[in-house]
Amino acid sequence: MLDGKRIAFLATDGVEEAEYVEPRDAVEKAGATAELISIKTGSIQSMDHTEKSKQYEVDREVAAADAADYDALVLPGGVQNPDKLRMNKDAVAFVKAFADAGKPIGVICHGPWTLVEAGVLKGRTITSYPSLHTDLVNAGANWVDQEVCVDGNLVSSRNPGDIPAFNKTIVEKFAG
C-alpha cells in the first residue's frame, strides 16, 4: 500500500514512545521506508509517559533533511519533544515545508505545537491532547475532541489510546 513511499518522523528527546514506535511500525508494515529525523545526531530518549524508556538512533539531522525527499511527515507527541522541536528553526522550517507543499502530515497528542510554531493551522480543523486546545484556537485552528480528525492533508489524534485509529488513517492518507 505504501511501497516506495518515504515517511519522515520528526522527534527528539522526550518523544512519547508509543506515538513514535507504533505509527512507524504501521507505515513500515504497509511497505514504506521510515526515517527518524531529529534536531541532533546520535540517539534520542523516548518516554513512557513520565518514565524514560528506550533510545532510538537518529537517521538524519533535520538541518540536513529536505522535505522534498519525503512523501509524508509524522509528528509524535510527548510533552518535551514538541516543545524542543518548536524552539528549533530547522525543525519548524521542515514542518512548514511539508505543509506548504500540501504533503500528508500525521500528528498526535502534543505534536501540534510544532504546527503552531510553523504558522500553518489558520482555518484548519484539528484534534490534540486537550491541554493544547487554547494554543490551537489561538493559532487560528478549529479544535475538536475526537479520536481521529482528517482535514485535507492533516490527520490528527489526541493521545496514545487513539493510536489504532490514527495508524489506520495515516496509512490510508499516506497511500494517496
Query: Number of DSSP helices?
Result: 6
Please identify the structural class as seen in this structure: alpha/beta
Strand content: 25-35%
Morphology = globular
The overall average pLDDT, rounded, is 98
Weakly predicted, low-confidence segments: none
| Major β-sheet annotation | 7 strands, mixed
| Highest-level CATH class | Alpha Beta
Strand and helix order: EEHEEEEEHHEHEHEEEH
Please give the share of residues in helix: 25-40%
> Which architecture name does CATH use?
3-Layer(aba) Sandwich
Cα distance spanning the termini: 9 Å
Trace the largest sheet across and list its strands.
Answer: 6-3-1-7-8-12-11
Number of strands: 12
Task: Indicate how many domains the architecture comprises.
Answer: 1
CATH superfamily: Class I glutamine amidotransferase (GATase) domain
Using the CA coordinates, give the radius of gyration: 14 Å
What fold name stands as the CATH topology? Answer: Rossmann fold
